[in-house]
Write a structure and sequence with these properties.
Elements (H helix, E strand, L loop, with lengths): L1 H9 L4 H5 L18 H9 L3 H4 L2 H6 L5 H5 L11 H5 L9 H5 L16 H6 L27 E2 L5 E5 L26 H12 L6 E5 L8 H12 L6 E5 L2 H4 L6 H8 L4 E5 L9 H12 L4 E6 L8 H13 L3 E6 L14 H11 L10 E6 L2 E4 L5 E5 L2 E5 L5 E4 L15
The structure holds iron/sulfur cluster (SF4).
Iron/sulfur cluster binds next to loops.
């Protein structure tokens, strides 16, 4: 906790940033005007004014990390009750007050039991995490693919640069849980210097994904400084951020931050919504701040049991993403990370889900279903080709009907053989 407070307090070198603490007024405070909004109900539940509740630093300093703190707001049930204590030495817990409020029944949403609640399952530690015979610590062997500390280099032209360690919410299925075992990785000066040096000395690297942890958990100045250093490397063409703050801490994604990053275009953001209930007005405001600054926002979901593994829930999410101007990009098959057996689903479930999407939702909304492996991403696609029949192809269309596409099996005539 002390490390967190130091980072939040000291990472701002900019005096205008400092002058707005601790009750930084921003464009999210007006969301408190609606009595039912997360901001208004959260401010009431936590006994603060809406400006304070809408302040991202206040949210980080008041992360809910114990059973006692969670029970001030929620009634914990079954496997949740013992989760905080049982997991404390295995994978830390921490939930922003904002995200915790999404675990309460919301107007217009069904009141689901905890073991079927898509947000509780993602954020609250559960004792099932202790039982997972197949789970491993580093399912993508990222350590083995890191030529220097925290730079994961799998593909020749791009790297993942893990500058951050802290997160607004410690997602229970995170595939980088292993980084929790050590402290001091968050915006560590030596790690950043070495990473920049590695990227600068490898001209093949065109694309840098800044990730973590959550890299938006730093001051605007620290982020701008990092981006400016990357942009100064001539061969780096695009800079991407992987951040879950629009979902778990939307107040962090201010217009000012977006505009500061936009000075270094092309900048892209990939975020990580997993269910439609996460697309609150506050979350949509965070995304709008980025998109209005010309920063394209894509979404990477993880396919999770009882969170988004049903076609209806996935389609609601995908439609909601497009309405919020977010492009669905990847749907990851769940990584075989330790402590997640209760959240994993089979590949068959994923393929069947993808099959249901095609034909029932616009192609713009359909993400690529991905199996992530240590040597790279493998797209998993429903097979619509049944067989070849002479020169014809027999396929199953998206409604399950059989179609014969004539004359497509042989190579088409080349220009040389066409009649003139
Ligand atoms: S925000 Fe990302 S890095 Fe942080 S715990 Fe969640 S999945 Fe892991």
């Amino acid at each position: 906790m002390q490390e967190l407070i130091n980072i939040i307090e000291n990472s701002s070198e900019n005096s205008s940033e400092n002058s707005r603490r601790p009750s930084e007024a921003n464009e999210f405070a007006p969301h408190g005007a609606s009595h039912d909004s997360v901001t208004a109900s959260g401010a009431r539940a936590f006994g603060v004014d809406v400006e304070t509740f809408a302040n991202w630093r206040w949210q980080m300093k008041h992360q809910v990390a114990s059973r006692a703190d969670a029970e001030r707001i929620l009634t914990l049930a079954g496997a949740e009750s013992d989760g905080f204590e049982a997991l404390q030495d295995i994978f830390q817990s921490g939930i922003t007050p904002y995200y915790l409020m999404l675990m309460l029944p919301r107007p217009g949403s069904p009141d689901l039991p905890p073991h079927l609640h898509p947000i509780r399952l993602q954020g609250l530690p559960r004792t099932e995490e202790l039982k997972d015979p197949l789970g491993v610590g580093d399912p993508l062997d990222e350590v083995g693919h890191s030529p220097v500390r925290e730079v994961v280099h799998v593909y020749p032209d791009r790297v993942a640069f893990c500058v951050a360690q802290l997160c607004p919410v410690y997602c229970r299925y995170c595939f980088r849980k292993r980084r929790d075992e050590e402290t001091g990785l968050h915006f560590n000066r030596a790690i950043i210097d070495r990473g920049i040096e590695y990227i600068a000395s490898n001209p093949a690297i065109k694309d840098v994904l800044v990730t973590g942890g959550d890299p938006f958990i730093a001051s605007d100045s620290a982020l701008e400084n990092l981006v400016a250093r990357l942009r100064a490397i001539p061969h780096v063409e695009i800079i991407r951020f992987g951040t879950r703050t629009p979902v778990t801490l939307p107040y962090r994604v201010t217009r000012e931050l977006a505009q500061r990053l936009a000075k270094y275009h092309p900048i892209f953001v990939n975020t990580h919504f997993n269910c439609v209930d996460e697309l609150t007005p506050e979350a949509r405001q965070a995304v709008a701040n980025l998109v209005d600054a010309g920063i394209p926002v894509g979404n990477q979901s993880v396919l999770l049991r009882h969170v988004n593994d049903k076609p209806e829930s996935m389609m609601q999410l995908l439609r909601g993403l497009l309405r919020a101007r977010i492009r669905p990009y990847y749907l990851f098959h769940p990584h075989r990370v330790a402590g997640t057996e209760h959240l994993r689903v089979s590949i068959r479930t994923g393929i069947n889900l993808m099959k249901k999407l095609r034909g029932n939702i616009t192609g713009l909304a359909i993400p690529t279903y991905i199996l992530d492996t240590p040597s790279g991403k493998v797209p998993l696609t429903p097979n619509h080709i049944l067989r070849e029949d002479g020169d014809d192809l027999i396929i199953e269309d998206c409604r399950g009907e059989i179609w014969r596409e004539k004359g497509v099996v042989p190579e088409p005539l080349t220009e040389m053989t066409l009649d003139t």
